[in-house]
């Protein structure tokens, strides 16, 4: 898992569901994939075990949990491990009001002792790796002071893998979207943490939009890079070459048309189980981003994917639309 974390796709609410992850796995065999954040109460109190569903092809795949109640997190982690997830990750970075009201997410940056207790409870419940995704700080905290203390106290539990979003989070005054863009990035501080804690596996997240930048950050000594929105909106650009460029595999770059066609059996199976086409195709809109005819691909999937009776044949029609448009 430490090797897989060299390049990962960030957990993103409403985006990195099981259909998205299956699609991404066709682009990269090695990239570490994360679930959307799943709250521990949803699993433990709500019995929403369907949130743990995934396809075996998704491995290596990690479950991200949200929560701050030790018993709930321990039980939720156990459920995730029993489901076969390769890693359990604790969210200490989400700044949304809903997450704050539940006393978890980025607000936990203010209480590293509680985070350490949460991690220890989860570790005692599972045999797989328990990791943390955090911010460099929140609100008026001074990141250069609070981040080393946070890492030191949590690492004392034996947790040795951290993904650090290189922005401070403002819990009041900024929306979750603004918290992804407005606070300045501080890659240097995250790099300094690797120097201070050489035994820790430290991945960096935030504002990374291409593989060249990812490679530069790895060359600076960081152990991993996590890419979010760019991997979702431009999946082929980000993921198709990472197996060779990041993981050193001697492998062919997957052709995007072949990837689109390879999704058809998966779609067919989903439809047989009562699913809807757009639940899958909405994640595929960016497959041809920047290529001739890409707009026609997106339009066909968007407009027809939601119609009753839409099935996997829509992939062929969308590809035809794109080819015709590109030939004009």
Per-chain topology:
Layout lengths: L6 E3 L8 H10 L4 E8 H5 L16 E6 L3 H14 L3 E6 L4 H5 L10 H12 L5 E7 L7 H13 L5 E5 L10 H4 L7 H10 L4 E5 L5 H9 L4 E4 L1 H5 L1 H5 L2 H4 L10 H17 L5 H4 L12 H11 L8 H15 L1
Parallel strand pairs: 1-2, 1-8, 2-3, 3-4, 4-5, 5-6, 6-7, 7-8
Helix pairs in contact: 3-5, 5-6, 13-16, 15-16
Brief rundown of the structure:
This protein has 328 residues and is an alpha/beta fold. The chain has helices spanning 18-27, 40-44, 70-83, 97-101, 112-123, 143-155, 176-179, 187-196, 211-219, 229-233, 235-239, 242-245, 256-272, 278-281, 294-304, 313-327; strands at 7-9, 32-39, 61-66, 87-92, 129-135, 161-165, 201-205, 224-227. The model has no long low-confidence stretch (mean pLDDT 95).
Shape designation: globular
Low-confidence parts lasting 5 or more residues at pLDDT below 50? none
- Structural classification: alpha/beta
Query: How much β-strand is present in the residues?
Result: 5-15%
Plain-language structure description:
The protein is an alpha/beta fold. The protein has 16 helices and 8 strands. The protein has helices at residues 18-27, 40-44, 70-83, 97-101, 112-123, 143-155, 176-179, 187-196, 211-219, 229-233, 235-239, 242-245, 256-272, 278-281, 294-304, 313-327, and strands at 7-9, 32-39, 61-66, 87-92, 129-135, 161-165, 201-205, 224-227. The protein has an 8-stranded parallel β-barrel, surrounded by 6 helices. Strand 1, helix 1 and strand 2 (32-39) form a beta-alpha-beta unit. Helix 3 (70-83) packs across helix 5, helix 5 (112-123) packs parallel to helix 6 and helix 15 (294-304) runs antiparallel to helix 16. The longest helix has 17 residues, at 256-272. It is globular. The termini are far apart.
